[in-house]
Amino acid sequence: DLLLLAQAASPAPEGAPQPSFLVSIMPLIFVFVIFYFLLIRPQQRRQKAHEKLVASVKTGDKVVTSSGIHGIVANVKEKTIVVKVADNVKIEFERSSVSSVEKGAEVAEGVK
Predict the structure, then answer these.
(1) Whole-angstrom Cα distance, residue 70 to residue 86?
(2) Is the pLDDT of residue 51 over 60?
(3) Which of 11, 17, 42, 74 could, after both became Cys, cross-link 84 (CB 3.0–4.6 A)?
(4) Which residues on adjacent β-strands are paired with residue 102?
(5) Distance between CA atoms of 110 and 69, rounded to whole angstroms?
(6) Could you report the per-residue pLDDT of 53-112, keeping only the tens digit for each?
């Protein structure tokens, strides 16, 4: 029995071809490519779209912040916006906290 186990554990004969490094790393490369197209690339697209949305915010737009506060933009500053949420109630937010923008308040009132 020992002789059979020793023979089974012996390495492959010298004449047998060994898989190349490229062939052995190919599954890892394939997984990375799938990971890139399913996770990284869509996230980059969403981030660019959000940056464009934040840059397009102007006074009078209806906005919803990431914390769920709805209001109308009263003032746009370099890094912040002032959102009017009720009569005589204004809150200052970071521009990046805007999650969605609707058409301007003046346009919406004109349609009614």
Answers:
(1) 10
(2) yes
(3) 74
(4) 62
(5) 24
(6) 999 999 999 999 999 999 999 999 999 999 999 999 999 999 999 999 987 645 444 443
Mean pLDDT check: name the lowest of 14-18, 28-32, 96-100, 108-112. Answer: 108-112
Q: Mind giving me the DSSP string for 14-40?
A: TTSPPPPHHHHHHHHHHHHHHHIIIII
Q: Which amino acid belongs to residue 22?
A: L
Work out the burial of residue 47: count CB atoms within 10 Å of its CB; fewer than 13 is exposed, 13-18 middle, 19 or more buried.
Answer: exposed
Would strands 89-94 and 61-65 be described as parallel, antiparallel, or unpaired? unpaired
- The single-letter DSSP state of residue 78 is S
Distance from C-alpha of 49 to C-alpha of 46, rounded to nearest angstrom: 5
- Mean pLDDT across 19-44: 92
Token look-up 């004109």 returns 110
